[in-house]
Amino acid sequence: MTTQENLKLFHDWVKRMSAYHMALALLGIDKQTLAPVDGSEFRDERMAILAGELFSITTDPRMAELRKTLLSDEAVTGDDRKMIELYDHDISKILSVPKDEYVAFNQLQNESYGAWLKAKNASDYSMFEPYLKRIIEAQKKMYSYRSSDLDLYDQMLDDFEPGMTREKYDVFFDKVKERLVPLIRRVTEAEQIDTSFIETEYPVELQKKYMEHMLAYLHFDKSWGYQNETEHPFTSGLCENDIRVTTKYLPDRPMSALLSTIHETGHGYYMHQVAPEYDGTIFNEGVSSGMHESQSRLCENYLGRSKPFWEANYPALKEVFPEQLKDIGLDQFLAALNAAQPSLIRTEADELTYPLHIVIRYELERGLFEGTISTEGLDKTWDDMYEKYLGVRASSAKEGILQDVHWADGSFGYFPTYALGSAFSAQFMHAMRKDIDVDDLLRNSHYDVIMNWLKEHIHKYGCRYNADEIMHMATGEAFDPNYYLDYLEDKYTKLYHLD
Length: 499
Ligand code: ZN
Hints:
Bound molecules: zinc ion
CATH class of the largest domain: Mainly Alpha
Distance between the termini: 72 Å
């Protein structure tokens, strides 16, 4: 077989996997948006069959042999070589685990999820604790089958953000604590901002009317994407020209649907703007969590909460809600939109306090896998850390340790990427501002020009390069958390008149 013939076989295999991925993604979107609940048993059973087929195609030993042949062929270079390496790396993680162990782990994940849900509803950590213990032990076993130079928790971190280790996260989170804990304390002690006028009744029908204006401003075009509603907003992209974003309307929290839409369309733009020749391949599907989150948060926080953004959009908002925003000027509105206050629930946290929620989860995960922290009494350890870093304490496990689903299905190492995303975006913004007049573009409804900068410097590469490489290419420097911490310090010092 010639190199070309082998490469054709490889790309045919990639396309076959992509067909299954597409079917499963569409069924997933349907399940979370429009599908009637009672039909779920029928659908889930068939989805499991498709997932099983996909697993067999992905792990086909003949394809492993083909990849090996291609990688030893010097004529295979550039994108082809990189793509084969990425598939090989990912598939070796699955293949290293004996099949019965893999099935048993999936079973445990389902049981653990069920136990977590019940425990959360009852607000009783003791109902979940045995499962948490089991899933940690099971993960230790699953990872023990892999061959890696990294230690266990570093491998987990690397799975969600390739290249990141405890050593690097420690440097980052130590800086976050050092600079944000005292700043949050000062903000808490300062005169508080009135947010009551954005926490009152805004009829959903009118919110939807305003959303059309917002989607137009975001240049989110119906020719390549659409939006509908769901319980937990998410974005799913099939290819360059088929992007689905979702949102959720809350009658007394009008900014929730708007900000989550700006966030989700940020993910959507990423998927839309990866080079089209990467559609249906790992280059598009494998973008790391931190990089993806950096783009959605850049849109939500750095653009969507800024003054120039609302100089363009506030007049229309006032027109749709004249009663609710009567006598409220732009600056007053912006202060409310950016107000910060330590709270218990991560997903409802503001931009300033959010990274501390992540620090807490990171330190607990790290301790659990290093053996310095036990699952017994973890609810109390959790509460103590909230008190230490944020000055608040949960009155129930539901608002404390049981709030997130991640640990229930064994996703350890995922949380840190959320904080990393926000920090990446600060550095990207800094570089972008050297090239284009972001504020002017926002004021004059040229959001598309900003998105185009992201395309040219970040999006088009997909995960052809890792976060480290893209950071260098887009900003000319290694990742430096000081951009992020400077931004937060500057913004909140001004907002709360701390100087
Ligand atoms: Zn996101």
